[in-house]
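User: Second chain of the day. Same drill as before.
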Amino acid sequence: MKTKYQSGFKEQALRKVFARSSDQTVDAMAIDLNMNVGTLRGWMKNASRDEKNPPPKAAKGTHWTPAQRLLALHESHELKDEALNAWCRERGVFAHDLTKWRSDFCASPVAGSREESQELRQLRQANQQLQRELNRKDKALAEAAALLVLQKKYRALWAAEDV
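Assistant: Same format as last time:
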């Protein structure tokens, strides 16, 4: 049975293989990606042969927003082994990226910590003060523009009467 891989998965697999450390073999990488070694070697050969498209640089899941990452973690939570690998292939992400996202999410500081809440409160106050100042300056600018328009109309009106 021939497996059809999405282009995103292929690009990420090539990034991972070209960015691997010297102690990792292509065979081990293929096993980790749950794919045929020959397919991976063929992709590498084609990528290195194509001068217009050099091997991609390493970038792990950088195009995923935090909300997308959370949704991906939610969708893939119950999946195991082959089902997880198939899910990852469909979306062009690696299983180890999901593991990293999960650990990053769990390691994030608790929102209720005292220092964070004080810092957040200070940032909110500073934001409110800046918003008030911006609103005040907007109003002043609008008033100045209105006065200029009135001044032009006044001059145009008196210039028409003088003629």
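Residues 54-61 have pLDDT under 50 and may be disordered.

User: Great, on to the next one.
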